[in-house]
Design brief:
heterodimer; A: 324 residues; mainly alpha; Four Helix Bundle (Hemerythrin (Met), subunit A); 11 helices; globular; disordered C terminus; B: 95 residues; MrpF/PhaF-like (chain B); membrane (chain B); transmembrane helix (chain B); transmembrane (chain B); Multisubunit sodium/proton antiporter MrpF subunit (chain B)
Chain lengths: 324, 95
């Protein structure tokens, strides 16, 4: 029964991936990709990695799909504006070399991966055992959080820095023509939905953050949920990103600043960079995570909100026929 | 991970339910491919979200993992957002 389920799941995942690649219609590829994210979350579940499943569910279902739909809307609006035509997807056939090259490199990578699996070196130490051994010193009960925020917190610190740089670039590229989505805030359905949906989202975001210290969860997943709530509010027509622009900028950097401050201030006591005193490690980790959740939420939301609103909302895709 | 090893028939029962839902999901995949309109595809994706919640809950029983209920909760809350983005951004201004 286990095997049958896993095989079916694998086949569905491959079908979905093929659907993304072989789709000439951009929107179909996007929807396929949303479905792919969901199936991937299920695969992570079957691989006993609920942390990854949680992240995939939050990012894949909540944010990637929205970003891509937004991008397709921009593209189609742009195309309609400039050429009076939709996507030119039935255009020239790709050159021969542009087909051979990807296939060739994919085969090479596949062979290399196969070799890496076949001749993998024996692990000198069993890392899971090592983590389990030193878990009591980390201040949290969940091994993944212990690794991310204590044993290997350097990686996490740099990840936050990368996210921050990404959003700074996005803000720099933003054209200076931000208008609120006109006339949208009157939509009664969206208003009703946001009144019912956003509060539970915020509560669940905080819960996931809190749960991170003893079970799957944590700052990134909580932040993604927070970001999804903000994206929803923006889509519903609330001009939240204009409410407090300077506050938003502080919030974006807050997580990184707090993380770095804690990481360096432990050095005053003569400890190495990024090692927390054991007695307060749990509290410090939770404090950092809470700040990170806030910042990650704002960062992910900013990546969405920095995109300009569509030039002219199109309804051209509504009646579009399958053209394959 | 903790595997309390519940009664095998119960595990198989929940796995069968999850598998059945997965089959309906593959059927939905066909609808995404076939279309014909963007709305059909988006609704199929929305159905994926709901079915995914069901599969996750069934799997949480089959695998005895409480954390999967959280995953299902997150998925249930966030699946609607893609739909809202679709309606707002691709179907023109609301009247």
């Amino acid at each position: 029964m286990n095997l049958a389920f896993d095989v079916l799941l694998g086949i569905a995942l491959l079908l979905c991936a093929a659907g993304v690649f072989y789709s000439r219609d951009l929107f179909r590829a996007v929807v396929m990709f949303i479905a792919f994210g969901l199936l991937l979350a299920l695969v992570w579940v079957r691989l006993d990695a609920p942390d990854l499943a949680l992240a995939e569910a939050a990012i894949g279902a909540g944010l990637t799909g929205v970003l891509m739909i937004d991008a397709v809307a921009h593209l189609s609006a742009k195309n309609a504006h400039h050429q009076g035509a939709q996507f030119d997807q039935t255009g020239a056939r790709p050159q021969l070399w542009s087909r051979i090259l990807p296939v060739f490199s994919a085969v090479i990578i596949f062979i290399l991966l196969l070799g890496a699996i076949w001749w993998r070196p024996d692990a000198p130490v069993s890392l899971p055992d090592l983590v389990a051994e030193s878990l009591p010193e980390s201040g949290v009960e969940h091994p993944i959080t212990a690794v991310l925020l204590n044993f290997r917190s350097y990686d996490t610190l740099l990840e936050i820095a990368v996210l921050l740089v990404a959003v700074v670039v996005a803000m720099a590229l933003k054209p200076d023509t931000s208008e609120p989505e006109a006339g949208n805030s009157k939509d009664p359905i969206l208003h009703g939905l946001s009144a019912r949906l956003v509060p539970p989202m915020l509560v669940v975001g905080v819960y996931i953050l809190w749960a991170g210290s003893y079970m799957p969860g944590g700052a990134f997943q909580g932040g993604a949920i927070l970001a999804a709530a903000l994206v929803f509010l923006k889509l519903a027509g609330f001009g939240i990103e204009r409410l407090a622009d300077s506050l938003l900028r502080i919030g974006l950097a807050l997580g990184f600043i707090v993380f770095l401050t804690v990481a360096t201030s432990v050095m005053i006591g003569g400890r190495p960079f990024l090692t927390y005193p054991e007695s307060v490690a749990g509290e410090l980790i939770f404090f950092i995570e809470a700040m990170l959740t806030f910042s990650i939420g704002l960062i992910l939301f900013s990546l969405f909100s920095q995109a300009p609103p569509p030039v002219a909302p199109t309804s051209s895709l509504q009646g579009e026929q399958d053209e394959r | 991970m903790q595997t309390l090893n519940a009664m095998p028939w119960a595990t198989n029962f929940w796995l069968a339910i999850a598998g059945l839902l997965l089959v309906t999901l593959v059927a939905g995949l066909w609808r995404i491919w076939r279309g014909p309109t963007a709305t059909d595809r988006m609704l199929a994706a929305q159905l994926f979200g709901t079915t995914g919640v069901g599969i996750l809950l069934a799997l949480s029983q089959a695998m005895q993992q409480v954390a999967l209920i959280d995953v299902a909760l997150v998925l249930a809350l966030l699946a609607v957002i893609a739909m809202v983005a679709f309606v707002k951004r691709m179907q023109g201004p609301s009247s």
